[in-house]
Design brief:
alpha/beta, Arc Repressor Mutant, subunit A, Nucleotidyltransferase, domain 5, 3 domains, 5-stranded mixed beta sheet, 15 strands, 19% strand, globular
Length: 390
């Protein structure tokens, strides 16, 4: 609901405070109207008076900002092998983050475990006197954030996943695609702050992309824009998780990294993970490979570099299409830093049109593993402010 109160809250969510004349000017309303609704929001506890501003001449106006403890927002980033949860206050500051590693998304009891984690986090927040106004779950796959349906995980016809979880927690709940949540986080609070045209590439167990065009996160007609991982890219006959063959994700992703590394070890190549692969039936985890890369394992680094080259080849096409000012690379594989990004940049230099790519910067995620929860919290806060349920 686009009320004067929600407009003021939305404005202050993007600023570190403002005076009534500044609010009136930004929203195109009279000073009297701005004064009236700022007063209402002060009474409701949504705003705080930060005191008089510095002024050389004339009467010094008061500056107002969102009140940090007016409400809290829970962001939950659901990954293939763990869940990351965090809280944001009303001003947009993160105050807590916790990783739950006893979770496997494609396991039989995944929904029950997800529900338990959500109830645990909400209960702990309430015990500490925090009023959670809303939550947003960043989930991989096809997510309709308009209806709260997940068509990839936990789908139940006629009952949206967001509604099922909201009934369990008792707080407003929304869903967002995980990569798009990362895009929101990086665009507003991370590497993309201040940009207008940005691509966010999420190289995790899968491969996804978020798009910012002219200062707005682009979702497409039905909300599914950015399926870079499921664009046909390789004549390898490998069946993707989506059921198609040869998708980009089959060669550029954490699962591709795991598969290629295990194949090369079993073919006789040496790695500090060789014994782990050859003597255990347990699947190799991405975290183990990241640790091996950090320990400068030559084989792991070589596999990462080859993925970086392939990623750069695909990114060069994206740069030619979108002409972005920034490409942010996030996800677990981005934690390898220059081992992934240097070969990616070299491939971009080789394949992209220089006139188009020369103004494009490629960098690693500034928020790292927390990009998803920061974005999810921001989405939850945005939903609350625009519904104006104070």
């Amino acid at each position: 609901m686009n009320t004067p109160e929600s407009q003021i809250l939305a404005l202050l969510s993007r600023r570190d405070g403002a005076t009534i004349p500044q609010i009136a000017d930004a929203l195109g309303i009279s000073i009297g109207t701005a004064t009236k609704y700022v007063g209402i929001l002060l009474e409701e506890g949504a705003l705080e008076d930060c005191g008089k501003t510095e002024s050389v001449t004339g009467r010094r106006p008061h500056r107002y900002s969102l009140r940090a403890d007016a409400g809290w927002f829970l962001g939950v980033d659901v990954n293939d092998r763990y869940i990351n949860a965090g809280l944001m206050d009303f001003q947009g500051n993160m105050h807590g983050q916790r990783i739950f590693e006893d979770f496997i998304l494609d396991s039989k009891g995944a929904f029950a475990r997800l529900s338990d984690i959500l109830r645990e986090v909400v209960s702990l927040a309430r015990e500490n006197g925090l009023r959670i106004k809303g939550t947003c779950l960043a989930v991989p796959g096809r997510i309709d954030d308009r209806t709260g349906d997940s068509y990839t995980w936990f789908y139940e016809p006629g009952k949206a996943l967001a509604r099922r979880l909201q009934e369990q927690m008792g707080i407003p709940t929304s869903l967002f695609n995980d990569t798009r949540a990362m895009t929101v986080g990086e665009y507003i609070k991370g590497a993309g702050a201040g940009t207008q045209n940005m691509l966010m590439i999420n190289v995790n167990w899968g491969l996804g992309m978020g798009i910012v065009m002219d200062g707005k996160v682009y979702s497409g007609k039905s909300g599914y824009a950015g399926e870079l991982g499921h664009v046909y890219g390789f004549d390898n006959q490998i069946i993707c998780r989506c059921g198609k063959r040869g998708c980009n994700e089959t060669e550029i992703s954490g699962q591709a990294l795991q598969r290629n590394l295990v194949e090369r070890i079993r073919a006789g190549e040496s790695s500090i993970l060789s014994q782990r692969v050859l003597e255990s039936d347990k699947p190799l985890m991405l975290s183990e490979i990241m640790d091996a890369v950090a320990r400068e394992d030559v084989l792991c680094i070589d596999v990462i570099e080859k993925i970086g080259i392939l990623l750069g080849e695909k990114t060069s096409g994206l740069i030619n299409l979108f002409n972005p000012e920034l490409v942010v690379v996030g996800g677990e594989l981005a934690m390898t830093g220059d081992y992934l990004l240097d070969p990616m940049r070299m491939a971009v230099n080789k394949h992209a049109i220089h006139l188009v790519s020369k103004d494009t910067r490629i960098c690693r995620s500034a928020l790292g593993i927390d990009a998803g929860i920061v974005g999810a919290c921001l989405v939850a806060r945005y939903n609350h402010i625009n519904q104006n349920n104070l």
